[in-house]
Amino acid sequence: MNQAIRNAWVALAVMFALLLGAISYVQVIGADDLNKNPQNNRAILQTFCQERGPILVAGMPIAQSVSSGSDTCKFQRAYPGDAALYAGLSGYYSNIYGSSGIENSMNSTLTGKSDELLLDRIRQLFLGEQPKGASVELTIDPAIQKLAYSLIPDGQRGSIVVTNPKTGAIIAMVSKPSYDPNLVATQDQAAAQASMKKIQAQPGINLNQSVSGPTGALLAPGSVFKLIDTAAALASGKYNKDSVLPNPAQMTLPGTSTQLPNYAGGNCYTRDQADFAFALEQSCNTPFASIALDLGQDAIGKQAAAFGFGQDAGDQLHLDYSAGVWPQNLNQAQLAQSAIGQFDVKASPLQIALMTSAIANGGVQMKPSLVKQITAPDLHVVSAAKPEVLRTSTTPEIARQITQWMTMVVSQGIAGGAAVPGVQVAGKTGTAELGASGLNNSWFTGFAPADNPQVEVTVVMEGVDVRTGAALTSPTAKKIFEAVLKK
């Protein structure tokens, strides 16, 4: 009997300890993670009717709290103007679906509950004021944002990222199709549910913007990945700017009977050997497959990681970010395919923008930043973003050499559509095949001016034929270069 009582007490003690531990975790250790979880709408229900700080672009709100006209819930989150233009950045704030985008990542700031706003909360308490959140101003240029959005045709899945390679500031970031966050921020739950169902039914819809690709999944980067092959080759010491590369019209993938052909739309077929300049100008496949087979998957993978593949994007982005993927345990045939950005190599538009920005910035990749500054309700600036180095991707010498070759891709290669009169533009195109469909993901990435980069542009159009892709990528980048540089 005594032994049974002792066992019962031990069991009760263990259960009490587990319960105490669980409560401690939820209330102390895990509270912040739980509150930030976009699936958790309990925290939102507590503050849904309070006045949140606005999200601003060039001083104008793209998200704000407005009077709801209700005594029980005084404020309503609203997204003025062309809400779809900024939906992938602002996200939504819903009492059913939680929050996304900046509304989620900056929630503690927008509600005034962040540590940096402690003194403001104390002041509001003593003055008897209702709690107010701080405003969050983004780095976005509204004119460039609007232009970039207009350059993706309606009905076309695509994404455009525009950055300042020297600072990491995101100038514009758009995707189509988009949606109107007002439709899910409504207090009418039935209407919000019906709207979300329609939004999610859109083919290619992405609620997570360009950080994870136009359709919410990472994309094959195609030939823009050849910039990483080139950096790896030069870094190895086995190749230099004068190296002669094998350039057969096609090569048999090792261990298979499958042929890897050169790009049929260029002039690769005119030479059976090529230097780096020509191979990049014409986007020839076989030279870069040969480089990868020579260097090995670890060397290419190490260089990809240095450009950010498989790595985080720093703490200034404030959006959920999916890092690019360099596959592991490749056989030789898969390695050859991966070298040209196919097989299982994957990247988001932002990932490619970071890669290109590192080349533009002398080999140094800056943290991508989306928040310019945070301003308290009494209008004093709480914090302002400062450029920070994220990682070193390659040497200044290699970056300069690749830049020189990228200018030739535009001036005399297949990216001629990106050329801007009076400005030296550096660029690279990519065409990632989508199985046997005959359609591709078409890419352009580049920067200008090449000798003093002020702007980087990455464009991807998904599910297009070669002709359509060529018309929607390089020429689109040209228009953005001209707008930013005011040419």
Automatic annotation (TrEMBL):
This is Peptidoglycan D,D-transpeptidase FtsI family protein. Pfam families: PBP_dimer_2, Transpeptidase. One of its GO terms (cellular component) is plasma membrane. Residues 52-136 form the Penicillin binding protein A dimerisation domain. GO terms for molecular function: penicillin binding; peptidoglycan L,D-transpeptidase activity. It comes from Sinomonas puerhi. One of its GO terms (biological process) is cell wall organization. It comes from the Bacteria. Residues 158-482 form the Penicillin-binding protein transpeptidase domain.
